[in-house]
Amino acid sequence: MQDKLQASYKQLEMKSKYTNMFLRWFLYFALILFALYFIFPLYVMVVTSLKTMEEIRQGTLLTWPSGLNFDSWAVAWGGRGYGAGDTFLRPYFWNSFKMVIPAVFFSTFIGAMTGYVLTKWRFKGDQWVFLFLLFGCFIPFQAILLPMARTLGVLGISNSIIGLVLVHTVYGIPFTTLFFRNYYISVPTELVKAARIDGAGFFKIFFKILLPISAPIIVVTVIWQFTQIWNDFLFGSTFSFGKAAPIQVALNNMVLSSTSVKEYNVDMASAIIAGIPTLIVYVLAGKYFIRGLTSGAVKG
Amino acid sequence: MKTLRIEELSKNFGSTEVLRKINLEIDEGNFLVLLGPSGCGKSTLLNIIAGLETINEGNVHIDDYNVSKVEPKDRNIAMVFQSYALYPSMNVRENMIFGLKQAKVSKEKIEEQLEKVSRFLQVDALLERKPSQLSGGQRQRVAIGRALVREPRIFLFDEPLSNLDAKLRVEMRREIKKLHQQLKTTVVYVTHDQTEAMSLGTNIAIMNHGVIQQNDTPENIYNKPSNTFVADFIGSPSMNLIKGNLKESSNKISFIANGSKVEIPINGYNFNEKSNLNNKEVFFGIRPEHIFFKKSNESDFEITLKADLSEYIGHEQIMTFDYENQEVLAKFPSTIKIELAKNTNLFFDLTQISLFDAKTEERI
Description:
The structure holds 2 protein chains of 2 kinds.
Chain A: H1 2-50, H2 53-58, H3 71-78, H4 90-120, H5 126-137, H6 145-155, H7 161-184, H8 190-197, H9 202-210, H10 215-231, H11 234-239, H12 247-256, H13 264-294
Chain B: E1 4-13, E2 16-26, E3 31-35, H1 42-50, E4 57-62, E5 65-66, E6 77-80, H2 92-102, H3 107-120, H4 136-148, E7 154-158, H5 166-183, E8 186-191, H6 194-200, E9 203-208, E10 211-216, H7 218-223, H8 228-233, E11 240-249, E12 252-257, E13 263-265, E14 281-286, E15 291-292, E16 301-312, E17 316-323, E18 326-333, E19 343-348, E20 354-357
Helix pairs in contact in B: 2-4
């Protein structure tokens, strides 16, 4: 009897071992498959950008380039050097920076302030303010184009980088407020009370006590805002043209307005260049991203 | 001159009345504990004393000066919070001197205070650490230190021990008691823990539904609860409240429990008002620890009850008896053996009883 039981347990043990092994391999297989699926477009972009037009015409999408040929990158960045109709990314790349940095800074700062007030200096009707701000997150980009164009016109800053900074700051505030509000709600209000008894005022409490413990959520907000604003095409193409355009608009102009042959290698190189800054931000701050998104409890 | 005097204080949040006509006074050097169940308004009252909440009606005086509209920092108070509320980004030193720096106290004075207090609380070795690197007890100590360096007139404690584990809580409780004995500063201390309240307070104000039910010494709170709420709230297990009637005949007063024929003589009871007692509906209050298994006092009243339930908790046992369908709890040393479902002779210590009007629930 005892032996029989033992034997059947052994059998069950083996069975569960094989099941687990199979499932594990299946998991890895699926994961690798998905990874390949996602990396495939990037691979095509990179190899294409390194090929000459000759190679592109003769080979397939997947063919390995004959050598490291950065000519198309140089053209995408700096142009060919002839006058009219030569669009290249360099000036627009800096345009984008001039737009992104202030817009990210202001929207993050204002969001932090608003989140601070909504959680630590509650006032009558503050839930309504928050609700309306939240509502702002759900307003589609397209819906604000006309009113925004009018506003920019009245202010006299349409087709300028300052105008774009304003648009992105305003549009970003609901999101940044949401982030900071949700972060600060988990910070014990007793901290603020203690600071008030210690004699610190509204701004001192914000700068000395809350802001120093906000690093995780600042990182999240900066990544989010940077990606949003850098990658934005709609606002850029609507509110700016010509010299004031950000990089995504320039990229579009470059790819779509080529008059002669489609230069896939230059297009690919341009697309990669336009994507590099967000990539860098993610790599540098990425590990804080998840931590910040999931962190709530600030244990003092 | 009272260190703290609160007059006719009322507070509501919207339509919810949180505090109703609170009157409270504390003498210099006293330790007042605000005790009550959660939601009774005790923390709100403390926040009002601190100036962190506004007042709807009434006034708060500190040293006879009306501070009702004075900023928290100018009230000469310091507060210790339940979550310690140490500033996470600052080290212990910065935490402790933050208030003094805000008040623009001179550097020498700050250093002097810091050294004195940190040595006194034995946190001088921790000055460079961040709050996250401290244990619960150390954090508590730093939080107290931050309050101490300000040399306040009144210390406010908001459930400072609730976040600690049971063992540490008892230790810190003793430390706070020692601290008060040494410094003799006036303290207002909020807690929902009756043991804390009893052991720390020179006065206890028991609150419920925004009203102070009784404000008295711990002895009086325990021995002479002013209503059934206080009687029920203090003590573990709480006071038995047996429903019944009084009977007055030829200068003899006795209590008869509902459904019972036994007359318990209560001639020795100190009535607040000795009139209209006959047939009055009352609660007969006796604490579980005042019911004995052996006669210990001449005045003890012998009664026979059936044991229903026994809860063993180590050094003692809590027995539940049936008294004409009313539960009566008694506390005995665990060495005594009592058989369940059998009649047992018990002795009520009649010098320790309380009587309450069944309608008003007030002590009579």
